[in-house]
Design goal:
The chain has a domain at about 15-105: Rieske [2Fe-2S] iron-sulphur domain (Rieske Iron-sulfur Protein), CATH 2.102.10. Helices cover about 5% and strands about 35% of the residues. The longest helix has 4 residues, at about 130. It is mainly β and about 140 residues long. The radius of gyration is 15 Å and the shape is globular. The protein binds FE2/S2 (inorganic) cluster (FES). FE2/S2 (inorganic) cluster binds next to loops.
């Protein structure tokens, strides 16, 4: 989607707000985790947008059942499709299954003016093509 209004400093446009329905399908996007390409996802839960690296704490593999489908049938937990680890959507904390004690890697997000943005961190960076569009500094 075109970023007509410009991203907040340091933030990267992820998607339009209305793309993320409450407890619905996640928006999948590419990041570099420790310089390796991986996927991440954002979804809306209890009105709030959360984002995580798409990487199970049990075995480092992607978790979606179908592309963008992360929540269980009751739309209550993020459920890994491989062995059924369950994660609390708001915290990324493991609450059941073989990931006990683990946690998803959270990505900071911002929802503003009908758009959702994410913030890179030391460990989680944008892919090179996205980095060129990134604002150079963050002033918040
Ligand atoms: S890889 Fe996710 S529960 Fe085993």
């Amino acid at each position: 989607m075109p970023d007509e209004g410009g991203s907040p400093p340091g933030a990267i446009l992820l998607c339009a707000s209305d793309q993320l329905e409450e407890s619905g399908r996640g928006a999948v996007f590419d990041v570099l985790l420790w310089r390796a390409p991986v996927r991440a996802f954002a979804l809306r839960y209890e009105g709030r947008v959360v984002a995580y690296v798409n990487r199970c704490a049990h075995v480092p593999t992607e978790m979606d059942w179908l592309p963008g489908e992360f929540l269980d049938a009751d739309r209550r937990y993020i459920l890994c499709s491989l062995h059924g680890a369950a994660y609390e959507p708001t915290s990324g904390r493991c609450v059941g299954g073989p990931c006990t004690g683990g946690r998803l890697m959270a990505i900071e997000v911002l929802e503003r003016d009908g758009r959702v943005y994410w913030y890179p961190s030391r460990d989680i960076r944008p892919p090179p093509a996205v980095e060129q569009e990134e604002s150079p500094t963050r002033h918040e």
